[in-house]
């Protein structure tokens, strides 16, 4: 039985995860330069080692209430479709593992707009909602 690894993080009280193979870096929150006030999904951009990275307000994207930034707030830089983006998260919890048997496709679970969620990973003590990075990046 093969296992896959994910970065598990929280937004509010909900646990989410992203594929570790698509994760470039986890960094502390830095100043983000706003570029488009009309787009509430994008918070702005950062300069990461001479590369401009768009920063996504992940809570807004998922229609969650935004938490105040804290010393646990992080940016997870991910790459999908040859594009890098930074996801603002409330806190990174762990590197987790799961098997395909523990994951259920989102289409089978909900009828609401779940385009940003790829599936649900069922762990004994928690559920992890896996982000669909192809829809975000």
Q: Any descriptors?
A:
137 residues, mainly beta, OB fold (Dihydrolipoamide Acetyltransferase, E2P), six-stranded mixed sheet, five-stranded mixed sheet, 11 strands, 52% strand, CheW
What does it look like?
The protein has helices at 58-61, 133-136; strands at residues 3-11, 14-19, 23-28, 42-48, 51-56, 74-80, 83-89, 91-99, 103-105, 117-122, 127-131. With 137 residues, it is mainly beta. The chain has one domain (3-136): CheA-289, Domain 4 (OB fold (Dihydrolipoamide Acetyltransferase, E2P), Beta Barrel). The strands form two sheets. It has a six-stranded mixed β-sheet, with no helix packed on it. A five-stranded mixed β-sheet has the order 3-6-7-5-4. A hairpin with a 4-residue loop joins strand 10 (117-122) and strand 11 (127-131). It starts with a strand and ends with a helix. The model has no long low-confidence stretch (mean pLDDT 90).
Write the layout of secondary structure elements.
Layout lengths: L2 E9 L2 E6 L3 E6 L13 E7 L2 E6 L1 H4 L12 E7 L2 E7 L1 E9 L3 E3 L11 E6 L4 E5 L1 H4 L1
Q: In which order are the strands of the major sheet placed?
A: 8-1-2-11-10-9
State the helical fraction: under 10%
Instruction: Give the CATH superfamily.
Output: CheA-289, Domain 4
Output the CATH topology.
OB fold (Dihydrolipoamide Acetyltransferase, E2P)
Report the CATH C-level class: Mainly Beta
Low-confidence segments: none
> Which class best fits the helix and strand makeup?
mainly beta
Q: Please identify, by name, the CATH architecture.
A: Beta Barrel
> How many H/I helical runs?
2
- Total DSSP E strands: 11
Shape: globular
Mean pLDDT over all positions: 90
């Amino acid at each position: 039985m093969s296992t896959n690894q994910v970065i598990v993080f929280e937004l509010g009280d909900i646990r989410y995860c992203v594929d570790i193979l698509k994760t470039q870096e986890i960094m502390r929150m830095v100043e983000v330069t706003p570029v488009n006030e009309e787009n509430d999904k994008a918070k702005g951009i950062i300069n990461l080692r001479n590369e401009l990275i768009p920063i996504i307000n992940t809570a807004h994207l998922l229609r969650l209430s935004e938490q105040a930034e804290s010393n646990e707030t992080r940016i997870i830089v991910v790459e999908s479709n040859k594009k890098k983006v930074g996801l603002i998260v409330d806190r990174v919890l762990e590197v987790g593992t799961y098997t395909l048997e523990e994951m259920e496709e989102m289409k089978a679970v909900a009828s609401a707009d779940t385009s940003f969620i790829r599936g649900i990973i069922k762990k004994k003590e928690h559920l992890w909602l896996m982000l669909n990075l192809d829809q975000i990046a």
